[in-house]
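yo, Pyruvate, phosphate dikinase is done. seq:
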Amino acid sequence: SKFVYDFTEGNKDLKDLLGGKGANLAEMTNLGLPVPPGFTITTEACKVYLDSGQEPAALRAEVTEHLEALEATMGKKLGQADNPLLVSVRSGAKFSMPGMMDTVLNIGLSDASVSGLATQAGDERFAWDSYRRLIQMFGKTVLGVDGDLFEEALEEAKRAKGVRVDVDLDAADLKNLVGQFKDIVAKETGRDFPQEPREQMDLAVRAVFDSWNTDRAKLYRRQERIPGDLGTAVNICSMVFGNLGPDSGTGVAFTRDPASGQQGVYGDYLQNAQGEDVVAGIRNTVPLADLEGIDKPSYDELMQIMETLETHYKDLCDIEFTIERGKLWMLQTRVGKRTAGAAFRIATQLVDQGLIDEAEALQRVNGAQLAQLMFPRFDENAKTQQIGRAIAASPGAAVGKAVFDSYTAVKWSRSGEKVILIRRETNPDDLNGMIAAEGILTSRGGKTSHAAVVARGMGKTCVCGAEELEVDTKRRCLTAPGGIVVEEGDVVSIDGSSGKVYLGEVPVVPSPVVEYFEGRMHAGADDADELVKAVHRIMAYADRVRRLRVRANADNAEDAARARRFGAQGIGLCRTEHMFLGERREMVERLILADTDADREAALGDLLPLQKADFVELFEAMDGLPVTVRLLDPPLHEFLPDITELSVRVALAESRKDANENDLRLLQAVHKLHEQNPMLGLRGVRLGLVIPGLFAMQVRAIAEAAAERKNAAKGDPRAEIMIPLVGTVQELEIVREEAERVIAEVERAHGVDLKLTLGTMIELPRAALTAGQIAESADFFSFGTNDLTQTVWGFSRDDVEASFFTAYLEKGIFGVSPFETIDKDGVGSLVRSAADAGRATRPDLKLGVCGEHGGDPESVHFFHEVGLDYVSCSPFRIPVARLEAGRAAA
Ligand code: ADP
Ligand code: MG
Ligand code: MG
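structure:
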């Protein structure tokens, strides 16, 4: 096979083989854009090297062949003493990967060719500057010398001369510096800086190959789920020089504003500079628009090229370019990163320009971006005092008083204060404090730190790893650069989307996108926010094409109404347990303590009208749409007083000899119901089978509510009754028999046909494995993927996220918690086979999912692919699910 491709041979679709950078350099070359000639060594060559520890045998000859062709084109030879060709050696994998090796520029320079370069360019200073850059970059990235050693020598040279910036060093200074750099290399590596140009090139190529397997690169890949065996390509590109004086320079540009999506001239330019100088911030850059005044012909050409690239890639592109003595060169382009808001605006703009169609527009945005746009944000117009910047770990805008330990967080929040929990890093002991806080700020740890993982799981604002902020938990204060001290109780504001930390209260404004979904802002209005207009259009595209329906998890009329405004097509999960709390708790106690059938029936009789009233409201809010009501699921002890508290109360009372009879019985019951593993204990359908009359009462409440809506209100209730935690069809059969009897009674009494359906959750492995049998007795399945994940993995969701998940994420065992994104290979494959088996028994079986996964983008795609009918998620997630269902179908 062929291991080397000239830039003229590749194209943008060959990213697997040529890497992103190489494929796009080839694409630009073939578009006739001014790209310095060069060639790309393929990822295949890298793979052979990584597998065998040796470059493929044919590689050297192929490289020689392409190098000779390049030399012929350029009319000079690599490193030739009197007229040297210089090249850059640039890494470039299929996916851009921070933490991989940097590019080495000016390969081919040596003690011999440096004067040739000086003559060629007529510029002595430039030649020595290029040489010192080569030794510095090569020393650091290829030979592994500590880069600080070079930086220090450079700083010292500037100091000695009394100048501030590198351009003020002259040829003699730089020549001197080259000598020092060579000494550093010799001292640190035990060998001289290689003078032979081809050896320089080969060593650099090998270093790029090796960089694929650095620890940082491996970790990054595991976390981003990039396969470890792709390898990287290497680009050899003839050098052009931006450091040849004021008529030269280097810059970066975007074809539109990556922050707003607006078309215009965005970028930075730096005169007399090379390579990374622009982004390294060594001197102040000028805005790209200023290039027009500096070099009009190059500027005009660049604008022309930017238009060509946008039309060609049909998307926002970012660009790296260099001007050498008035001649423009393109060094890189790719489809550029953008903010969430810009993604939506650009997608609709491109549709309007006729560059892409609606289906493609849907692929240009995603649910994570939409979710980001739905968080409240800080008022952009507010005056703020920023005191630091952290890693944006979990979005949102949080304001509160600084507290430095979890105990204080809980105490203050109980007394009604809003607090921000500030820690160096968090650990499982901080959980209560994190729950109590508005937001979390840490000075250590990255996106997978404990704080970040747990906060994201809770949907709580979090910024982490603010290294410039010094947290002193003993003295209860935080010190920011400039000596600003934040004491306990001082108000701080943190922005989980940007990572910025402010002193004082920054006013928060609701997201315009939420205002729009809530119906308080209309996309059609003339003055409507551009972003809202774009979101409105994209949502319309998604709704038009999606096959999956989207329902809400909602337990009360208020949530149901909001869900409906957000586009819910029904309720996929109404939990009934909250209907047993508050003042009704006492009735539940009576139910549990009942000694006789009569006592029990009386307690149930009291609960019935209350439950019924809840359902009437819910059916009204969702009139005409399906409402799946799940019968009682959690273990009963959750409705009883805490065992310790009650024991203490009883013990105290006994010591005073006035123990209350009821408390004693309650305590007995609590002891009796106490379980080591409540999650695997007496709950769900098991309760219904053990407590006579409980499920019958709930079914009656549902049926009577439906009858009332139908008769009295002429409504259209569409209730579906769902049985939780079924493991075998026999359980379901017994419950169904009783439910059907109750429903028939209600129907007779009210003279209506309620068309109630009865189905089950599939949330135990055994249910999934016997889904074919269970379907005999079920009108629908709803996959409870939270419990299914717990039971398939043997993870307790309430415990593991805060304990060992951080370690698992750091080690790359999974890139994301299986409670967040469905584990396709394990849990997902059970869902798939259960869905197939269920439909084999009963082709019209309705299939849905009601775990947290129902609102997770990646999971939604999976459920679409498996062929479910709907996903159900929390009201706030509904727009995300609609969008992703559309993207999955488009
Ligand atoms: P990265 O992937 O880090 O962006 P690049 O390979 O794009 O690394 O190189 C970084 C910078 O080095 C480029 O933006 C460009 O300014 C400069 N550079 C790379 N190759 C050349 C070249 N052949 N001539 C001039 N400058 C180059
Ligand atoms: Mg680059
Ligand atoms: Mg469950």
